[in-house]
Structure formats: structure tokens, C-alpha cells
Amino acid sequence: MSFLRERFGYVPDLHFFASGKRKVRAVVKEGADERADLKGVYVGKKAPYGFIISVEGSFLVGRGAKKGIIELNDEEFDRWMSGQDLELREDLPKGVYIVKYQEVFAGSGYFNGRVLKNLLPRVRIQ
């Protein structure tokens, strides 16, 4: 998971494996056996612009990440959880960011230089 190390400065001590064409799951190393495809946590999926990190994946990676996190205020978090994209006045490089509100990791978003595109699946939106 070189993308995680490069983008966030941290890779959890887990066994990562492909699950389908583009999806990635993770298990503790002791759980990585021949039936690992039936276990684990969905971490994210590969996309043309990087790696979309799931809400669960954002927690696993975010709690040790040294960079690549955008912290939201109360109003931004409410908008984020309702599925809206956020216009940010940040001078950040383009790319995928983990979204965090206080101690809550809320998935990931793609920042295009102006707007943080909400990558939460519609079924997870309040």
C-alpha cells in the first residue's frame, strides 16, 4: 500500500488484499489465510485519481496519518454528512484527503484545488 505511505505517511500494520477488480480489504496479519477474501474490512477502491478511502478505512489510516487530512468545522461537517461537496479556501495540492471532524473520521474526498468532492456512498448519507 505504497499509496497510503506516500499520501498519508502511514500504513496500518495489516494485511491488505484485493477484493474484486478495484476494491481493497484488510485483516490483521494473523487472519490472513486462504479464506481471507471472506474476512476483513473494506478499506477502499482504486480510482483514476488515487484511492478512495472508505469510512472504515479512513479510521484505520487516519488515526496514524501524518498528512493528507482535512479537518472540518461544525457547519462543514453537517454539509459533508448530508452529501454536499465543500468549497475550500485552502492552498493544498490536488488529491484524495481523509476527512475528519473532531475525533470522527468521515471517509475521504477528492480536492481539485477549489472543491472537496464528497466521495461518501449515497447509502451512507444522512
Structural account:
With 126 residues, the protein is α+β, with helices and mostly antiparallel strands. The chain has a single domain, classed as Nuclear Transport Factor 2, Chain: A. It contains 3 helices and 9 strands, in the order αββββαβαββββ. The protein has a 5-stranded mixed beta sheet with strand order 5-7-8-9-6. Strand 7 and strand 8 form a beta hairpin. The longest helix has 8 residues. It is globular. The mean pLDDT is 89.
The profile of the biggest β sheet is:
5 strands, mixed
Q: How many helices does DSSP assign?
A: 3
CATH fold type: Nuclear Transport Factor 2, Chain: A
Q: Largest beta sheet: what is the strand line-up?
A: 5-7-8-9-6
Calculate the terminal CA-CA distance, rounded to whole Å: 31 Å
Structural class computed from helices and strand pairing = alpha+beta
Task: Quickly list its features.
126 residues, Nuclear Transport Factor 2, Chain: A, alpha+beta, single chain, 3 helices, 9 strands, 4-stranded antiparallel beta sheet, globular, 5-stranded mixed beta sheet
What's a concise summary of this model?
The chain is α+β, with helices and mostly antiparallel strands and 126 residues long. It has 3 helices and 9 strands.
Which helices and strands occur, and which strands form pairs?
Elements: H1 2-8, E1 15-19, E2 23-27, E3 41-47, E4 50-53, H2 55-62, E5 69-71, H3 74-81, E6 86-87, E7 95-101, E8 104-111, E9 115-118
Parallel strand pairs: 5-7
Antiparallel strand pairs: 1-2, 2-3, 3-4, 6-9, 7-8, 8-9
